[in-house]
Structure of EI24 domain-containing protein:
Amino acid sequence: MMSLPRALALALRQLGDPRILKVLGKTALVTLALFASLGGILLAGLYRYLVSAGIAFSAELSGLLAIVITVLAGWFFFRVVAMFVLQFFVEDVVRTVEAKHYPETAHSLREIPLGEEVAHASRSLLRTVLANAAALPVAGVLLATGVGAPAVFWAVNAFLIGRELRDMVWLRHRADPAERAPISGGTRLLLGGTVVALLAIPFLNLLAPIVGAASATHLVHRAREKELHA
């Protein structure tokens, strides 16, 4: 089975491919537009709530509040939005990686109807929101430790994103609904954890979903090859 560092290295090498750059441009624009819209709605809603509650605050406090909300939203919502958007463009990434490294798998690639893509993306989004909401109390208890709370959210989102990236590739080649999904749990966790870390870094967070999808493509196909020749 291919190692995660090898899969990441191959994914990074292919970032210069014009087809990958095209997907990167589309996902970045849609992600930033959605993120900005959600941030504006959240800020406007909170402002209206505070005004209706009779809470007075200065322009300085308003600015501080906007900064805090932006940071918190960027920490959580950006990765949620980025992974949701990737669901609709991931096939282009998968096809590009497969065309170069796994051309023999083209015959097994199935077209996923838009309805199925929307349903999968919606379930993924719901899992992310519910899992992070469930992790909040645990993170709150560990907040005083300084590293406990971030570690909890890292673990939760690493698991979710690792599974999500695997499914983005595997579901496009799954011949039988009962077929066992490839890639071990540990590899999925490390892949998801790497993407979560990249999503926290400005500018690299735009590349993270693409790198994750390309890496997952390598991992899934090498795992399936190993199973076929076992």
